[in-house]
Amino acid sequence: SFKLFMAYPGRLYSDDGQLLRAMQQSAANGGLVMMHAENGLAIDVLAAQAVERGETGPEAHGRVRRSELEGEAVHRAVQLAAVGAAPLYIVHLSCSEALEQVTIARDRGANVFAETCPQYLYLTLEETLARPGFEGAPWVCSPPIRTGHAHHHADLWKGLRTNDLSVVATDHCPFCMVDQKELGVADFRTIPNGLDSVEHRMDLLYQGVASGEISLPRWVELCSTTPARMFGLYPRKGVIRPGADADIVLYDPDHRWTISVDDHHMAVDYSAYEGIEVAGRVHTVISRGRVIVEGERYLGSAGHGRFLPRGLSQYLL
Q1: For the CA atoms of the chain, what is the radius of gyration?
Q2: In the predicted model, is pLDDT for residue 150 greater than 90?
Q3: Which of 23, 51, 98, 115 has the fewest CB atoms within 10 Å, counting from its CB?
Q4: At residue 269, what are phi and psi to the nearest 5 degrees?
Q5: How far is CA 48 from CA 64, 152, 294, in A?
Q6: What is the H or E stretch that residue 133 is in?
Q7: Contacts of residue 251, Cβ cutoff 8 Å, sequence gap at least 6
Q8: What is the pLDDT of residues 52-100, one digit of tens each?
């Protein structure tokens, strides 16, 4: 798989011609293009205009990276993939407009897939980025956390049920407030983008099971089975059966606890989900037959990990 960016002009951005060439070559190689779909050129215009108006705080980051511009970029990526005869995987989809374009493409039979992330299922701009002063900086990520005044959350949960959203990933990319997020204290455009999620992904998505948004088997599909199939690791990963790696998580659905920076294990000085009460928690983690987590204790050791060469995605036509 190859990740491409329609955002971040001057850094990671690829224009439409470059995207098409990459899609054509990836398809010829049997690969999968993973697309960060936001209209970066238009966003940069809106960001510059916001700064000119004196809007320099974290909230402006969410306001200028409009959901319409994510929807437009997804539409354009889908069309380029059709021209290039390439499969397409939209990463960290955040909003209704973008999901609509994925749904339309899939309904007509296009080989298009998408993932979302926990922050887009639970958090809102109003309770995160819009905090006073610079307090919203920890939640600066792209695409941004969306406003709670729209129906993004409900639409994304629906997409998870209908399989228009195939995976829940994290795009885990945290930066500490001290010496990192603070680089953008005078201009939101220079706040490092990314937040912490990887430790709590399974727990956060399980809340959808507890609340009736998704089924228990669907939880496993979204977090384990489908990613393994999508990225060429199945049946070694993503399934419990003879011949597969003995990777097993024992989960306690009755445990109740509160997420906090005070006891998480990620090397970042805040929690994006601070104070959220959750039902269910990982009890035991077994990796290749070896217990590496038991309750609150980590029992793993350096050198246990193994490099896994990936095969072809099972979803490529």
Answers
A1: 20
A2: no
A3: 51
A4: -90, 25
A5: 9, 26, 50
A6: none
A7: 202, 206, 280, 281, 282, 283
A8: 999 999 999 999 999 999 999 999 999 999 999 999 999 999 999 999 9
